[in-house]
Design goal:
Number of domains of chain B: 1
Number of strands of chain B: 2
Domain Cytochrome oxidase subunit I profile (chain B): 10-523
Largest interface: A-B, 44 and 52 residues
Helix content of chain A: over 70%
CATH architecture of chain A: Up-down Bundle
Radius of gyration of chain B: 25 Å
Largest sheet of chain B: 2 strands, antiparallel
Membrane topology (chain B): Multi-pass membrane protein
Helix content of chain B: 55-70%
Keywords (chain B): Cell membrane, Copper, Electron transport, Heme, Iron, Membrane, Metal-binding, Respiratory chain, Translocase, Transmembrane, Transmembrane helix, Transport
CATH topology of chain A: Four Helix Bundle (Hemerythrin (Met), subunit A)
Radius of gyration of chain A: 20 Å
CATH superfamily of chain B: Cytochrome c oxidase-like, subunit I domain
Shape of chain A: elongated
Structural class of chain B: mainly alpha
EC number (chain B): 7.1.1.9
Largest sheet of chain A: none
GO molecular function (chain B): cytochrome-c oxidase activity; heme binding; metal ion binding
Oligomer: heterodimer
Structural class of chain A: mainly alpha
Distance between the termini of chain A: 58 Å
Chain lengths: 208, 639
């Protein structure tokens, strides 16, 4: 294998910097494999939720149809879907070796993700007021575990993105840092896709 | 960093080297040592069970202690012995078989082994901290939620930590086999050991997350006040059974497929023939992996899922016999007409065919759902799964230990002692478990700590216990063999079995830390054999001799694993004395330090992850001159 310089000059910048090195290729394949495992993880969570949906100890607990409002879930969905789009812009600029714009769009992605997270926390607090908590019923446990695991993934993604923006600020763009940014983007798309399923299975089917 | 093998090093630096290593060959040794330790531990627990059951009305173990011992025996053997020992051989062989200098993610490889070790230690600390888990290795929720004290918490947290390690290792092997193959090593030229590792790793990727979720449900119910399994709050304990077996059945194939891989290598080597029906073997491996996910409810025929569900799962289960049968016949056809050499590994391989087939046949008997109502929870089941796990997996581990020992340590285990171990173990195994089929059919239930005199179980149980002692003697002979071999330290050279076919045997022993001075060019299935027959017996290089890249060592995997280990104590003691906690722990003394410990532990892990992400880890270059010197030395030593 020829010696690989990580800092590639602009004229030799590859079309796919994220997989230009062996490490980059490994990361790409490895992370897709990890996402396959994550799919099985969320599938188990959805199955648990569907098994325990509306399963409460007594009549004074609120059920899904009374609890969920679609407008809030819609706004959250829009925020997260848009953040997925902005992460695509970041990758677009990464492939064009435009570091500043990549950082900018990553920053916008973080802001949109943080907006989503804030609304989710607001939603949880509201439900808490209705007596729908993690400990109130099996339904509550399953709901918070499913949505909470997704929310935890969002938090991890936000910290990850912020760390990447900060660490790369000094280092700039290289085929080494490009692989890291691309891996984050894959992750961010994945949690976006999971949310689409949550919106459908939890919220839409919940109010129908 | 790079060091020459001639350098003598102090104990401290050797320990530090192993704590920080990212070399797959050293990680294989870590898996072998830790897995071997847990294998002996699980074996001692097995002996305690058989001593207790040797005679009726025995009081060697109390009923409660018996439950702890059977739980820990099963859990230890599956999660802490069988799987890590298979990982030892995967790590030792796969990168060498595909012509790679290391795995795709050396750092994650290290993280995997340390998570397993810390998880295993945590689980076994239960013996010293108020009692081990006692709800069986399946830990069904209706039992485990009610189990008082912290035993079940050790099970949940220990398996969560070591399970994360297994998942990481699975991802690593999938990636390694996809991206790191040498030029010419196409998928259909990969040795069966590599193929079975690939399929088993894919199974890990899809099977372990459901277990993770199942254990989280159990953890949250026991430690954080949720209601997944609390029926009075709307919970449902059958969810655990589903999640556990969605993991648990593929787990059986995660264990047996690499065992099949080891045996496929051994048959071809010692019959001195190309593996019969290679492509059918690959196809059968993939098919078994695929079916493995569609049969989990055959563990739950008596739950009452209904005749439709039972019928579907019964048919799917029977279908697995087809690819497995293909394999059995291919192995027989490989031996057929071969020039067989009866080495210790070959003896295990030959014994494996009838032993494993017997386990398979009883499996088909249980697949018939109505008949299974008779076998369920009886000793027939115990006999069945020990025939497949011991007759398949443990035979493969012992065979692999003898077969791959020279590759890992550049010495040979003593063949005479090896054969003594084999015969003792082979007879001991059949003596212990054959009779248990009949015990089951006569009505003896599993998981009972004793039985009454005059039920007709006495003689059979005594025979079973006698067999267990034969196996114990066999393991003692094996340990003596290992100690003698290490003490003598008689080095062997390249291709110690003389009939090596696959790429790993083309390497000098001990294998250099960079594996291949030049990445070889692969010209066919069994590449080393191809070069022996058609070339000059040496692998052709696919690249000129140049500097190449190797990964840096790191202590961070140990720190990350230690963080989770600490956090587990915090989580476990968190519900003590809380009013929202389940009855099993709400009466214990409150532990105000639990939450800080939980936070500190998780914080350690996440900070270590942050450091890993923040710092550039570019590795280092091995210089051409160093490799040339090694090659010259080898040339001189070879003459």
């Amino acid at each position: 294998m020829a010696e690989m310089e990580y800092n590639v000059p602009t004229e030799r910048w590859p079309a796919h910097p994220e997989t230009a090195t062996q490490e980059g290729k490994n990361k790409f394949v490895g992370f897709w494999t990890f996402l396959a495992g994550e799919t099985a993880l969320f599938a188990s969570l959805f199955a648990t939720y569907l098994a325990l949906k509306d399963s409460v100890p007594s009549d004074d607990h609120m059920l899904a149809s009374e609890l969920f409002h679609l407008p809030l879930a819609f706004v959250m969905t829009m925020l997260l879907l848009t953040s997925s789009l902005t992460s695509v812009y970041a990758i677009y600029h990464m492939r064009n070796n435009n570091f500043q714009k990549m950082q900018l769009w990553l920053g916008i992605t973080v802001l949109l993700g943080a907006g989503f997270l804030a609304l989710e926390i607001y939603e949880f607090i509201e439900y808490y007021g209705y007596g729908h908590t993690f400990r109130s019923s099996a339904f509550g446990s399953a709901f918070y575990f499913l949505i909470g695991t997704h929310g935890f993934h969002v938090i991890v993604g936000l910290i990850w993105a912020v760390l990447l923006i900060l660490r790369n600020a000094k280092r700039g763009l290289s085929v080494y840092t490009a692989a890291k940014v691309n891996t984050f983007a894959l992750y961010w798309h994945f949690i976006d896709v999971v949310w689409v399923f949550i919106f459908t299975i939890v919220y839409l089917l919940g109010v129908l | 960093m790079a060091q020459t093998s001639a350098q003598k090093k102090g104990v401290g630096s050797v320990i530090w080297e192993y704590l920080t290593t990212v070399d797959h060959k050293k990680i294989a040794i870590l898996y072998l040592i830790a897995g071997g330790f847990f294998f002996v531990l699980g074996g001692i627990e097995a002996m305690l069970i058989r001593i207790q059951l040797a005679v009726p009305n025995n009081d060697f173990l109390s009923a409660g202690l018996f439950n702890e011992v059977i739980t820990m025996h099963g859990t230890t053997m599956i999660f802490l012995a069988a799987m890590p020992l298979l990982f030892a051989f995967m790590n030792a062989t796969v990168p060498l078989q595909i012509g790679a200098r290391d795995v795709a993610f050396p750092f994650l490889n290290s993280l995997g082994v340390w998570l397993f070790i810390f998880g295993g230690i945590f689980l076994n600390l239960s013996w010293f901290m108020g009692g081990a888990p006692d709800a069986g290795w399946t830990s069904y929720a209706s039992l485990s939620i009610a189990s008082p004290g912290h035993g079940i918490d050790f099970y949940a947290l220990g398996l969560q930590i070591s399970g994360a390690g297994t998942l990481i290792s699975g991802i690593n092997f999938v990636t390694t086999i996809i991206t790191m193959r040498a030029p010419g090593m196409t998928y259909m030229r990969m040795p069966l050991m590599t193929w079975t590792t690939l399929v088993a790793s894919v199974l890990i990727v899809f099977a372990f997350p459901p277990l993770t979720i199942g254990i989280f449900l159990l953890m949250f119910d026991r430690m954080f006040g949720s209601n997944f399994f609390l029926v009075e709050a709307g919970g449902n304990t059958i969810i655990w059974e589903h999640l556990f077996w969605i993991f648990g059945h593929p787990e059986v194939y995660i264990l047996i497929l690499p065992a099949f891989g080891i045996f496929s290598e051994i048959f071809a080597t010692f019959a001195r023939k190309r593996l019969f029906g290679y492509s059918a073997m690959v196809f059968a491996t993939v098919l078994i992996g695929f079916y493995g996910f569609m049969v989990w409810a055959h563990h739950m025929f008596t739950v009452g899922l209904g005749p439709v569900a039972n019928a579907i799962f019964a048919v799917a289960t029977m279908a697995i016999a087809v690819p497995t049968g293909i394999k059995i016949f291919n192995w027989i056809a490989t031996i057929w007409g071969g020039s067989i050499e009866f080495t210790t590994p070959m003896l295990y391989a030959l014994a494996f065919i009838p032993s494993f087939t017997m386990g398979g046949v009883t499996g088909i008997m249980q697949a018939a759902a109505p008949a299974d109502y008779q076998y369920h929870d009886s000793y027939f089941i115990v006999a069945h799964f020990h025939y497949v796990i011991v007759g398949g997996v443990v035979f493969a581990l012992l065979a692999g230990l003898h077969y791959y020992w020279p590759l890992m340590f550049a010495t040979m285990l003593n063949e005479k002692l090896g054969k003594i171990t084999f015969w003792l173990f082979f007879f001991g195994f059949h003596l212990t478990f054959l009779i248990q089929h009949f015990l089951g059919l006569w009505g003896m239930p599993r998981r009972v700590f004793t039985y009454l005199d005059g039920q007709g179980y006495n003689a059979a149980n005594m025979i079973s216990t006698a067999g267990a002692f034969l196996m114990a003697v066999a393991v003692i002979v094996l340990v003596v063999n290992i100690i003698m071999t290490i003490a003598k330290n008689e080095r062997v050279g390249m291709d110690p079995w003389g009939d090596g076919r696959t790429l790993e045997w083309s390497l000098p022993l001990p294998v250099p830390y960079y594996n291949f001075a030049q990445i070889p060019l692969i010209r066919g299935l069994d590449p080393y054999w191809v070069e022996k027959k058609e070339g000059n017996g040496k692998m052709l290089p696919s690249e000129s001799l140049t500097d190449f890249h190797m990964p840096n060592n790191s202590i961070l995997p140990v720190v990350m694993s230690l963080g989770l280990f600490i956090a587990a104590f915090g989580a476990m003691f968190f519900p003590d004395g809380k009013d929202w906690a389940i009855d099993a722990v709400s009466g214990l003394d409150p532990k105000p330090w639990a939450l800080p410990v939980l936070i500190i532990g998780l914080g350690t892990t996440f900070v270590a992850m942050g450091i890993r992400s923040w710092k550039d880890d570019l590795g280092y270059y091995v210089k051409k001159e160093e490799v040339e010197k090694d090659l010259e030395e080898l040339e001189r030593g070879g003459k």
